[in-house]
Amino acid sequence: MTLAMTDAAATTTAAAWLDVCDIADLEVERGRAALIGEAQLALFLLHDGRVHAVSNVDPYSGAAVMSRGIVGTREGIPTVASPMFKQVFDLRTGLCLDAQGKDARTLQRWPVSVDGAGRVLIRWEGGS
Predict the structure, then answer these.
(1) Which residues have CB under 8 Å from 72's CB, separation 6+?
(2) DSSP-assigned beta bridge partners for residue 96
């Protein structure tokens, strides 16, 4: 299932918190793709209730597959491994922790908040 924002919400130019979905739409340690305008995001709900948002586009292959990545931890750091070439990224920062012998690339990330009603909000600055 892919979640989609309206065009009006996606074209916001000033930084704003956008309502993306209900936290009940997410499964623990299973990625969910979201579309905001033309930007594809991958949302991950962790066991501790934290939600992370990163680009759904794998920076190594260019394929929109990160929401299908394998969620894990490395030394207490929440991670996602690309299903394409298995590079591992820090979900908090987007930094590549294991480049599998290639130059390190960064996975774009967005700040996330969950409001009192259980809505997942993304801090959006109008870019992808």
Answers:
(1) 78, 79, 80, 81, 88
(2) 89
Using the structure block, give the residue that is written with the tokens 């490395």.
74
68: which DSSP letter? G
pTM of the model as a whole: 0.87
Size of the chain in residues: 128
Q: Is there a contact between 89 and 97 (Cβ–Cβ < 8 Å)?
A: yes
Task: State the CB neighbour count (10 A cutoff) for residue 8.
Answer: 8
pLDDT tens digits for range 29-76 = 999 999 998 999 999 999 999 999 999 999 999 999 999 999 999 999
Nearest residue to 104 (alpha-carbon basis) of 117, 89, 126: 89
Secondary element (H or E) of residue 40: strand 39-45
